[in-house]
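Schema walkthrough. Field components (list of strings):
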Amino acid sequence: MATADVAHHEEHHHHPSGVMRWITTTNHKDIGTLYLCFSLSMFLLGGLMALVIRAELFQPGLQVVDPHFFNQMTTMHALLMVFGAIMPGFVGFANWMLPMMIGAPDMALPRMNNWSFWILPFAFTMLLSSLFTAGGGPAAGWTLYAPLTIQGGMGVDMTIFAIHMMGISSILGAINIIVTIFNMRAPGMTLMKMPLFVWTWLITAFLLIAVMPVLAGAVTMLLTDRHFGTAFFDPAGGGDPVMFQHIFWFFGHPEVYIMILPAFGIISEIIPTFSRKPLFGYTAMVLATAAIAFLSFIVWAHHMFTVGMPLTGELFFMYSTMLIAVPTGVKVFNWVSTMWRGALTFETPMLFAVAVVFLFTIGGFSGLMLAITPADFQYHDTYFVVAHFHYVLFSGAAMAMMGGAYYWLPKWTGHMYDEKLGKIHFWLTTIFFNVTFFPQHFLGLAGMPRRIPDYALQFTEFNVISSIGAFGLGFAQLLFVYVIVKCVRGGSKATDTVWEAPRGLEWTVPSPAPYHTFETPPKIA
Amino acid sequence: MTPRDMGVVVICFAVVAVTISLSFLALGFWLILPFAGLEVLAVAMAVAFAVRGASDYESITVTEDTVEIVQHRRGTTETHAFQRYWTRVRQQQGAGRLQPMRLLIGSHGRYVAIGSALTEEAKKQLARQLSDAMRRPLA
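Field assembly_structure (string):
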């Protein structure tokens, strides 16, 4: 007697092609690609809005847009970059890399994964459409502070619904990541053997789940204040607008870490590879990530020192904020220690990683300055804050994603990217980034308020420099797009390991990674 | 992780989300609570779905005389055996375009749906493979 056993997963290597492949796909690599393409589109669109802002600020006076449209641009730029570029970008990395890093065949809930992505284009279509409604799009800043947002036009309602949709997408994505990491690790892949990118995403997913209902509740209460006669935040009805700020920042500060922790994970993958050493202090890195996540829940009011609160409150939030420097310092120390006496080479991903460590630390230090309550009274709502968070979010999150893209692009496409162009992109980005944002520290210290379309004459020179830098930074990203497209279309064949000494399961599969990987779980020693 | 461990994870989520929303409720901002409740429900459902499905499997064994299907779903095991000579594999199209195609195996009017977790392409592939296996003489 002979037996023919049929394993279901062996033979589904054929997949649909054309548009329907992308609409109906449940494959983690396809969905990762969708997220990354979406993120890049939003990054470019949000960047275009930043250029409108910088064009207007090139000279004092009003030249390019009217103040209301300027406010819409600042608001929309932030919403697009936060919810459209950075968050989906990291989810894209998670989709592509998490299953391969833990030896899983796919995400745990693939259909939900498809829905998580496809909510986003509709959400952002609604958000962007608000610009064309009577009264225009949201113009109160990405924080949507009441009571200004209680007074806005229909665009605010569309923004609220769009935020709900983005929130649903984020929550579904986070649930999927948690279930995948807990349930689908290959045998032997214990929690403390997981790559740091997986750890940072696990903690990020916890943060997302903890704070997204707070944002959903906040914007819903705005909506009911606007249309259903409630007065949660409307002072005219006895509401408390300051509570909106508390609620928003209870979501908003963990959100900052939602945007930076996966970047830390990417950097922690790149630096050991190009240092040819294991990551220094793995356990400390995991604990530092968890500590940052915990502290992110008890620092929110440092965004509102000038609003007014009891002295004990100001002291508490000042000290708790300064405490974040400790685990963050552990991370920076460990990255530097990983590089210490390593056989370093500086391919494009490593250049980005080193730049992130250096520039993010500048953002961290300016954050420490802002954490000091009496100093914050001077810096609050000035360009110093704008400089600070761009050093954290652009040179932290966005540049980490660029480094990650160069690092894994050969694994995704099977081709090596153009190293020379990659390096040119890196230097243009780094130089123009600093030209754009470093002068903004001086503008802020000199007292230039943020979110204004016009300014006093003494701020002119630094604004001219900043605007020139912004246009350079913007055009440099077209080179990034070109390098990616060129790599997707062809190039020299990438080997399976791609780099000289990478660690991790993703480097054990061929380049490009097959449509289905790890259908038979790998054994981890 | 075991189902028990996953239960602990869900409870941890619930405690954090409910504590946060109850704190805001105490200040009069009650609309956060329903969203937290919905989210905890979604987390619990997703975890339950994943945990219950994690041990599911189907095994199809073609021997000289019989085709045996073992289906392990949600903790229970069902076994179906058919005479190999009469066994047929059928692809039943769904009622609408969005209804998935079903793959049936059986004989004499008694059919069992298999491969329900597979994509349509994979089901077609499996159907071809099974038909080949049953036609092929086994030594």
